[in-house]
Amino acid sequence: MPLSRSRDYLSIGEVLDNLRTEFPDITISKIRFLETEGLISPERTGSGYRKFFDEDVARLRYILSLQRDHFLPLKVIRERLDQADSNGGVPAVAPPSVVAPVPSAAQADPQSDGASSGPEPIATDVQLTREELCRAAGLAADQLAALEEYGVLAAGEGGLYEGSHLVVAKAARGFLDRGLEPRHLKMFRQFAEREANLFEQMVGPVALRKDPEARRQASGSISQLVALARQLHDASLGTSVKGML
């Protein structure tokens, strides 16, 4: 990055101009915020203007790439910076995330209305106490409490957890291990509730009928809708992440 001919550092405006192509959403306010959070510490001139040297710009680029490419919260970014500082300084760019390829949807069975069979059904007859769920999912007690606070998990009757709760807890633990916080996972629950509400509107009239055949029909329709939603989600997500690779 070329520095000014008259000095060996950049002003905050010059940093903005140099990084805007790579990070279009960067603003002076954002740079100041990162400084307020202690993630960057540019020197100041006698008049109080910020002085960004090469290492300051490299550090800022590293932070911005962690936010853009890895979606990491500031707490985790600060930990990464501390680790990088102890190893001699931050790299020029953040290492790329490893994104597992999204498998293509299975060929639909002609008798299944386009829905694939999906994963094996979750055992619903499993009953776990709070301690057993934490142990099975590898969660700390405070992590489970935070997941419940944000509606990601909720115990069933008698304060017990079922197999579906264990699946959610294990998936949540995977996200937490990658630096996300329980509040970031709330959107998955919200999406699921919206889908469930939509399916209820579609199947509700049949489900309200009392005869067993109608209930079997409603149950089959729900299963097909869930499988279709899973296919749509996987395909859409695969398309969205393709540009990151």
Offer a quick outline of the entry.
With 245 residues, the chain is mostly helical.
List the helices and strands and how they pair.
Blueprint: H1 12-19, H2 28-36, E1 43-44, E2 50-51, H3 54-70, H4 74-86, H5 130-137, H6 141-149, H7 163-177, H8 186-207, H9 212-242
Antiparallel strand pairs: 1-2
Please describe what this structure looks like.
The chain folds into 2 domains: 12-86, Orthogonal Bundle (Multidrug-efflux Transporter Regulator, Chain: A, Domain 2); 110-242, Multidrug-efflux Transporter Regulator, Chain: A, Domain 2 (Orthogonal Bundle). The chain has 245 residues and is mostly helical. The model is unreliable at 1-5 and 94-124 (pLDDT under 50). It has 9 helices and 2 strands; from the N terminus they run ααββααααααα. The chain has helices spanning 12-19, 28-36, 54-70, 74-86, 130-137, 141-149, 163-177, 186-207, 212-242; strands spanning 43-44, 50-51. It starts with 11 loop residues before the first helix and ends with a helix. β1 (43-44) and β2 form a beta hairpin. Strands 1-2 form a two-stranded antiparallel ribbon. 54% of the residues lie in helices and 2% in strands.
